[in-house]
Amino acid sequence: AQSVSQHNHHVILSEAASLELGCNYSYGGTVNLFWYVQYPGQHLQLLLKYFSGDPLVKGIKGFEAEFIKSKFSFNLRKPSVQWSDTAEYFCAVISVGGATNKLIFGTGTLLAVQP
Amino acid sequence: DAGVTQSPTHLIKTRGQQVTLRCSPISGHKSVSWYQQVLGQGPQFIFQYYEKEERGRGNFPDRFSARQFPNYSSELNVNALLLGDSALYLCASSREMNTEAFFGQGTRLTVV
What we know:
heterodimer
């Protein structure tokens, strides 16, 4: 069965620190990859997506992610975090060509940025 | 443009009751999906509808059902509510299959 693993459940950083959140998926076929963010009290928002092409994708608010097919990974990075980045981050996968486009989510990483 | 809208935002029901949750997708989006999110976990897929046809069903009991209307809005129904059905229910809409999904604020269901 397809699954998504997020290795860091809770991350605490100081402002200006660099961020990397790990995401690995298990699926042998073609996938579309996503990072969603949920700020406190808000709905899930799309941070960035990978469908094809350049494996380094840039999203909103200075976030980027790199798709490494050989490692089944799609890690999220940001060079310098801000207090406003405090949120929960979810990695998600869709298998392309399937009968549905159901998103398989990881368990999420709660990021707390200290001022 | 309005985003995905869900109603109601909060709901309290008693065990054994039935509940209907509603979702209006973004204009032009043909696909609606439903997810259940419990505390500490990522959203779990319940249903997907595309062009008014069911395209997928997650690992949920038959007490859960859904439908999509000609205007692409959708309803999620849960019968014989259990305490364990307490969760945030999310609706997501997509323009087509395999495109990015946009989520609503969710309906917080509490079963007592």
